[in-house]
Amino acid sequence: MRTTLNIDDSLLEQVIDLTGEKTKTRAVNGALTAYVRDRRIQQLRDMLGTIDLVDNWYELRHGFPEPSPPEERKD
Question: How far is it, in rounded angstroms, from Cα 72 to Cα 75?
Answer without folding.
Answer: 10
